């Protein structure tokens, strides 16, 4: 695991996991490798939104209002590139993992409250989360992306 000073979330980011460690705060699973950083998960997500001319809170507020997802709200970081992440627990809970949906290849139940997620690059991670919660979060993320695409399609129709 390589330590990085300033990681930027991109389409290569697969998962972010907050970790209580003396030398870093977050483990980053990326298509190109596994990294650690002193940045917190929230600061990484906030920076990613700001680089795309919004805020973490603003993105969440929109999704909560428009789709009525008041808890474990998916974060639509960049609608144009469909860069979207979802939490597996309450983001206020320390250690909450964030998954970037477009990298998920498969998932399988290990036991009642644990599952394994395999990503398109072959990497596999296990999480303390039920398969049902994971499926719900993945579905909410798909709904967010679909909602945005519908709105863009309507806007284009009105312009023509």
TrEMBL record:
Source organism superkingdom: Bacteria
Pfam families: ComK
Name of this protein: Competence transcription factor
């Amino acid at each position: 695991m390589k330590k990085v000073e300033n990681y930027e979330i991109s389409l290569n980011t697969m998962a972010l996991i907050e970790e209580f460690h003396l030398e870093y705060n977050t483990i980053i699973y990326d298509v190109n490798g596994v990294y650690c950083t002193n940045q917190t998960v929230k600061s990484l997500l906030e920076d990613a939104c700001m680089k795309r001319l919004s805020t973490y809170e603003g993105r969440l507020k929109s999704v909560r209002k428009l789709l009525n997802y008041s808890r474990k709200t998916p974060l639509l970081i960049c609608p144009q590139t469909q860069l979207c992440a979802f939490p597996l627990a309450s983001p206020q809970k320390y250690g909450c993992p964030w998954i970037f949906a477009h990298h998920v290849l498969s998932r399988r139940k290990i036991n009642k409250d644990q599952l394994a997620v395999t990503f398109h690059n072959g990497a596999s991670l296990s999480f303390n989360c039920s398969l049902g919660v994971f499926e719900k979060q993945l579905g909410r993320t798909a709904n967010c992306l679909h909602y945005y695409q519908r709105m863009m399609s309507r806007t284009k129709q009105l312009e023509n």
